[in-house]
Specification:
Elements lengths: L3 H6 L5 E5 L1 E14 L6 E14 H10 L4 E8 L2 H12 L3 E8 L5 E8 L2 E8 L10 H12 L4 E5 L8 H13 L3 E5 L13 E2 L3 H8 L6 H15 L3 E5 L5 E5 L2 E6 L12 H14 L4 H15 L10 H9 L9 H13 L4 E6 L6 H11 L4 E7 L1 H8 L8 H9 L6 E5 L5 H7 L3 E5 L10 H6 L3 E5 L7 H18 L1
Helix pairs in contact: 2-8, 4-5, 6-7, 8-9, 9-10, 10-14
Amino acid sequence: MSGEISRLAEGCKDILVIGDLILDRYVWGEVDRISPEAPVQVLKWVRDEEVLGGAANVAHNLSALGCPVRLMGLIGDDADGDRFNELTRAAGIDTRFVTRVSGRPTVTKTRFIGRGQQILRLDREEDPQQPGEFDEPLLAALPDAIEGVAGVICSDYLKGTLSPGLMGKIIDSAGRGNISTITDPKGGNYYKYKGVTAITPNLSEVSLATGMILNTEEAIDRATQSLFEQLGTSYILITRGAGGMTLFGKNGRLSHEAARALEVYDVTGAGDTAAAIFSLALFQGETPVSAARIANLGAGIVVGKVGTAPVSALEIESAMSSGGRNKILSRPELGRHLKMERAKGRKVVFTNGCFDLLHVGHIQYLRQAKNLGDILVIGLNDDASVRKVKGEGRPLIEEGQRAQLMSALECVDFVVFFSEDTPKDLIEALRPDILVKGGDYTLDEVVGREMVESYGGRLEVLPFVDGVSTTSIVNTILERYNQDKSRT
């Protein structure tokens, strides 16, 4: 593994995540008319998607970063609980400490998405259980669950799992083992969190917990100091939406991170991501200020996605190398982004290549390509694809590093991998307005031309810079190396 964030998870011991477990379901569709039966939008179904939510989303974020995770909480003994278990297994999350409860449904939140925006949310859950109603199985499992962990994250969605009794036992057990406990709190009563290492509330939650109107920075400072006095915690990281994140220590502000998201599509799960990354960084020995900086980057990536989704190390490293904006996306994520960009009237330009050694010819070519439209997308051959195209010994630079180099270029908006020999399938999925190819190609030689032209797009062939190529650079390096070696 390479990169600052990837290294953060290397050698990490298990992290225990305890809290309310939720199954998030998304119904994606198209909205193009109003119902004749009532003044409501008609959502034409396109697809369904189910993902991990609540405390399970915190665990999923950690797992996606390469960290081993143990999950503790409650789910129903129902079909949604079965689906929840399937998703946790696929994510590589340890669920030995998840308890199934008969007679209560697995908490689900179903969101209906049209034109890239949430238009309705349907929650399926019973009234919150009585405090401590299901503490017994969780308390029985706690000693084994907490044994040998790097830290504990408590994710409270006020569904009843984190009762005052259970929170007290978690904090006591962690304290005896010298284990840090970080809580993402909810509600107006924070007394049950007394003694945790850190909390990660949002601004409205701080206002609710303190009863203060937080309309000035001075008011925020006073409210935070009140929470320190109440809880005895070491750090408070307040997530502030468009206002970024502010980190407090017992003696006042430690840092403020400006919001990094360039486009906000959905804030769902951003708090989970911030809590997961901030906690992981602290557990791995990062300073609180550095942990807050990395958490802010991760949260900025999540709000640029639609739906609950974890972030990867590559996405955060991409954001670090490109001024806070994540440019390296999966094919489905990129497709959703481009749909939204087109809704704003923007033209999408696509080109592809190995880009094994980035050189001046590439730079000039990509700048010309960007000038043809609004959004420049790079289809990047993954390592296996490069070997097929270029032969053994290539690529010289592995795919993750090549993607980061490309995303660092100002003219590049998005980078997406493809593993096939040609980008035909990728072009079909993304449907660019302008297809760009470099070099001396005839129209018939360009893969994807007919497809793009069939829906009204066009092809542009741009010349490469003469005498500059990866092969020529490699040959020059070898020649000069051999010359220097022969002189010795």
